[in-house]
Description:
By secondary structure, this protein is α/β, with parallel strands linked by helices. The chain has three domains: 28-236 and 258-267, TIM Barrel (Alpha-Beta Barrel), CATH 3.20.20.20; 294-361, no CATH class; 370-464, 2-Layer Sandwich (Sulfite Reductase Hemoprotein, domain 1). The chain is built from 15 helices and 16 strands. The protein has helices at residues 40-52, 65-80, 95-101, 119-125, 136-157, 173-177, 179-196, 211-228, 244-260, 275-289, 315-328, 351-361, 384-395, 412-418, 446-460; strands at residues 28-32, 57-61, 87-90, 107-110, 160-166, 202-207, 235-236, 266-267, 297-302, 305-310, 337-342, 370-373, 402-406, 421-425, 430-435, 438-445. The strands form three sheets. It has an eight-stranded parallel sheet. It has a five-stranded mixed sheet with strand order 12-13-14-15-16, sandwiched between helices. It has a three-stranded mixed sheet with strand order 9-10-11. The longest helix has 22 residues, at 136-157. The chain is globular, with a radius of gyration of 22 Å. Bound molecules: iron/sulfur cluster (SF4). Iron/sulfur cluster is lined by residues 374-377, 379-380, 406-408, 410-411.
Amino acid sequence: MCRPHHINGKSRAVAVGNTPLGADYPIRIQSMTKTDTRQVPATLEQCIKAIDAGADYMRISIPDDASLKAFEQIKARLINGGYTHPLVADIHYRQDLAIEAAAVADKLRINPANFANQAGTHVATGNTKASPTKTRAALRQELVTQLEPLVAACRKHHTAIRLGGNAGSLTGQVHRKDPVHTLVNENLDYLDILESLCFFQSIVSVKTSSPAETVTACRLMHHNMQKTGQRYPMHIGVTEAGMGVPGRISSALGTMPVLMEGIGDTIRVSLTEAPENEIRFARQLIAGASGKLTHHCNTSFHDQRLQIDCDLEDRDSFMAALAYEWTRFEEKAAVRQLCIRALHPANRDLEAELANNIMQAAGMRNTGTRFVSCPACARTKADMESLCHTFSRELGHYPGVSIAIMGCMVNGPGEMADADYGVIATHKGKVNLFEGRHCRAKHITAKEAITHIQQRLRQSAPDHNK
Length: 466
Ligand code: SF4
């Protein structure tokens, strides 16, 4: 019988193509394409731009057979062009596609909650309500049987697997109430199952769209793996962080604390922007977490007022340096006012916005609408960047209100349930509108959805009637 080589301390090394991760390897930086994968030239272009910006891995969504064929072509063209960087196949729901992709991709990303007929969710939590006649042991065995062919394919082709848990895909009130423990327990169960199938090339992630929850989940996962000696490499990042300054600050506050503790073997900053933007900011976060930017900052605290001065010109470096200073400041609970001073004129316009965003992401102030938006991938047919700009322009000034903007239903259930309002892009510029978990309208325009939300906000709080 195979036995895992359990280790203490560092994470184990896992081979991903020619760029392993874990152990003493540098933190690997990755992004994901946002094109329709079947559009080979456009997807290839996004890969090359991100790799040129410093990506170690590129992930590509494979929702159907045609996309898998395109993935093969993209890989071949990249290699022909001298780009031998590992490619990751992102696959939801379809085990048959994942088995085929294992022969081509260097790593697969699957989501425990939507793979293998959703048995995983029930196994991990012991919640057999959805299948009341089955015991937990029976569900676990069912899952082992379902995963066996995929694991065999991955072992045969030396393909790693990321167990890509995501709070947005959790369903059921029990799970939603405690996404952190649900995600961690699911991943621990899945690691056990893969080990029982003699598979040890796993990577884990426990992402949520809340920076604080993400940090807690990463610490708990790390702690549990330390206890059992399983120490698989961790992929870190805040999911559906949004875009622009709020997206970067949310990502920074959800990763900087764990990076500074030495947790995290690969990072993805999930922005509703071009992949190369994610790579540039991820690089600055890693530099910031290692203290490389700190000599550009000066921090003082007096009368509950924290002031951080920073002389950096590059905007991403500036934001990463501030996130580092904020994270390492130990008396955060006593801060009533955060004042940021950009000593370089290039960033003066960011001072107030950054201070507000840091306080909001830290849960210490409510200065505007909280947006959660997915970064987009091949599954969405909408221009997510422009959709998010429209919603943020029209609905950005409602403190205490949260709006989720998603490109498809993969992570929709959880995000819709947690937000006051949600929109899911359908096709031809139309969206489905949700209030909490209830769908209120289907295939309406973004403008109609915005008007509906504005009306509801006026009804629920006269203060919003501005
Ligand atoms: S929610 Fe967005 S990023 Fe996630 S699978 Fe759907 S379209 Fe892709």
